[in-house]
Amino acid sequence: MQKFIDIRGVKHAYKTKNGPLPVLDGLDVGVGEGEFCAVVGPSGCGKSTLTRLVSGLMRPDEGAVVLDGQEVSSPRKTVGMAFQNPVMLEWRTILENVMLPLEIVAPGMGRAEKEARATHLLEMVGLKGFEKKRPSELSGGMRQRASLCRAIVHKPQVLIMDEPFGALDNFTREDLWQTMRDLRAAEPFTCILITHDLRESVFLGDQVIVLSGRPARTQYVLDVDLPADRTIDILYEPKAVAMLHLLREQIRIAQGRDGDLH
Ligand SMILES: Nc1ncnc2c1ncn2[C@@H]1O[C@H](COP(=O)(O)OP(=O)(O)O)[C@@H](O)[C@H]1O
Ligand SMILES: [Mg+2]
What we know:
7 helices; Rossmann fold; binds magnesium ion; six-stranded mixed β-sheet; alpha/beta; 10 strands; four-stranded antiparallel β-sheet
């Protein structure tokens, strides 16, 4: 059965002056509607390339990316994106930054309605009272919270995140993970998250896909069979610890090393 996001047999090579650089070589990923899919893999294996294919910024050489029954061939307004370094417009307030996608996707929506939607999301992520601030007045973690609001303000079909928490310190990052789960409980969305943090992948994911080294294939798929209302403490429970060990081992295989070579 076709999944909501269905990535089948995707191959892709970049054209470089030294000839083609094969990056993806047989990628299969299926994500059900409302599911959260975390993707891990060695540095440079093609994870960001995958996000470009799903968001329609690029087309694969072979295979297909199908979203809700339709092949993705160009950028879509129904995709939300979040990156490691959120690009915020300094001349706009935080509230106005969050409203931005609505101005593009829902030009007919009245200002009051846009403001209400953005205000509601900012409150949900703990930024009530910061609506009128400028991006530079916020900490990195707060800016990332605002950028999450901006990524989902227009209720995208799919949220794609490329290492969004990578630049944050550990505790801030864990807070953001919890916020992410709270947001998801309040507003279901389908998500692909690229991360190099295995704990993040297990805490946030319904499934974790491990990509092999470049050119990347789907090497392993872990079904994260943990309760939906998890808190950070769950990562210390034996079931989660066993998953982390298993993923670590898979990453070693992906890196083409055995456990002794460090
Ligand atoms: N536009 C491009 N042109 C040529 N090579 C690229 C381009 N973008 C990425 N690459 C190369 O493709 C490989 C995979 O890149 P990327 O998808 O960014 O990996 P990851 O996100 O897993 O670190 C890397 O070797 C990178 O240098
Ligand atoms: Mg990347």
